[in-house]
């Protein structure tokens, strides 16, 4: 607030509005049971999330109405079956948001929503990538985005099922040191579109992981956020402990 008094006696007031919100993404590995749902929402509320991305909800279309919480008044679900996939996006009722458009994958893999938050336009995308190396998935995602993302800032988050940098983002030394085909395709899009891995840009050499694989006895960072390089310096990102699920929740604050 800035006040300036003129001789003539009138007062000029400038008001600065700051955009501040947190997105939390979490592969919950099933949210069908009431007991687990309570635990998950309890943890989400402690993380103070304004926007929540869930992956692997395992919710059936007929069960999607069961995903409710008093903090969230707008909920989008993409369902598949009771053992696999399923993603949801939840918007906190305190967030002043206008929905422009939304795309919901019929196969339970992604949800894209174009929104206006405090007069700023964002295209938010929650994804759950296949765990077999499938570059076509990323081609599909970015072709869906190409029409929607113009004139907006991109926020992409979720379980990408790939490590962008195999030496930094995987704990196992003997694992494949080459990036997967999907990782290469994703990195090409990131370069072309001017978007970056928010956590990595804030932590250039740090090793922290979001997932433990009991099969490979190794940790990896396969859950992350991507956003326009031009706004990454206004963001911070956090990896929380691996809890309740086999993945850690991650947060991004703009
Ligand atoms: C991965 O990180 C290492 C260590 O910082 C770096 O030398 C290497 O160039 C990175 N690789 C890629 C593909 O970014
Ligand atoms: C963010 O990146 C997308 C994809 O390149 C682009 O369409 C959009 O205009 C960018 N937004 C800003 C604010 O730079």
TrEMBL record:
The keyword Lipoprotein does not apply. Keywords: DNA damage, DNA repair, Hydrolase, Magnesium, Manganese, Membrane, Metal-binding, Transmembrane, Transmembrane helix. It catalyses: Exonucleolytic cleavage in the 3'- to 5'-direction to yield nucleoside 5'-phosphates. One of its GO terms (biological process) is base-excision repair. The keyword Acetylation does not apply. It comes from the Eukaryota. Probably binds two magnesium or manganese ions per subunit. The chain crosses the membrane at residues 9-28. The record marks 247 as: Interaction with DNA substrate. Belongs to the DNA repair enzymes AP/ExoA family. PANTHER family: AP ENDONUCLEASE, ENDONUCLEASE_EXONUCLEASE_PHOSPHATASE DOMAIN-CONTAINING PROTEIN. This is exodeoxyribonuclease III. The lineage of its organism: Eukaryota, Metazoa, Chordata, Craniata, Vertebrata.
